[in-house]
Amino acid sequence: MDRNFSFWNSTGVALEFQEPSPYYGEYLTIFRNSYGSIHGYLSLIVCMFGITANVLNIIVLTRKNMVSPTNAILTGLAVADMLVMFSYLPFTFHNYIRTDLSEKEKFSYGWAIFTLFHAHFTVVNHTISIWLTVTVAIWRFMAVSFPASSANLCSMPRAKCAIIATYVTCAIFCIPVYITFTVSKFKGNDGDVMYRVDFSKIAQRHDKLLEKINFWLFSVITKLVPCVALTALSLGLIRVLYEANLRRQRLKNRAESDRSHDRTTRMLLAVLLLFLLTEFPAGLLALLSGILGTDFFNNVYLNFGETMDALALINSAINFIIYCSMSRQFRDTFAFLFLPKCSKTPELTPVAEPSRTVATTCV
Description:
By secondary structure, this protein is mostly helical. The protein has helices at 25-61, 69-97, 103-106, 109-145, 150-153, 156-173, 175-180, 201-250, 256-292, 294-301, 305-317, 319-326, 328-338, 356-359; strands at residues 181-187, 193-199. A two-stranded antiparallel ribbon has the order 1-2. The longest helix has 50 residues, at 201-250. It is globular.
């Protein structure tokens, strides 16, 4: 995965790792080695669950009774998360589970090419996932803050344009990554020629200018800026929910559409908070690496590389559980499609067709 390129060190990237000493590096190295023994199996399980869960998300969210602008963006988010985990499966199997591989097999030319593709592919899709999450937050904030004009502001054509624009823009935005890394040769312990992902000659020019730009763009800005934006939007949504609770105390007979509106906001708020919990630590460590320099990067950041990968994978996999636990409409549609014997309304086609007002706003 991208995760600020933390994993590339373990797959042959030429990153110098000095003897740990500052920032308790020796203890963090012990932690990394201990966790590394289970990272491959944990990642494999999370990826297999996440791929299945995101396929189910896509199937459920695209049913006729579930069609809405918000759900369209969530579908685009599920596709990006699923692609990240599809790429991570062979990567983790080769680098963490296949411990019987010889050095020459592990660093073969074919796997170096795959690692380069994997790195670029996951950078793009994870960046897409990040900004679609921000888009969902903006979408929801507009819907609850400007309900009178939300139908026009948050329409389905605009949602589709936002999804397409995010996919295209992120692919273009990641061009610095494409030219920063390349496959290079090196000699192993037995003198055999092997291959690894390394910084390109272009990245090394002008006192490693492109390398530094790449680090700040993707390790700091694409992590911290969305986190700051989501924090502000989440606080805004919490304020809206608080005000809605005050109104509920004054008006006991609330409309069903209002209750659905609040449930949807709470569910999306849970998605945003999960994103912050899993992505903010990586952005913070990257920022500290940029400020404190090589010692912090080598002794702290790199030692948490696999941990940050695991957190990001969990974030990509767990939305299905949030939807099921917090959205009755999602649960009913899922049960109608996959558990008809357990469904309370198996005769419905589609499931409990909601009113037009609810359908345009809720998951």
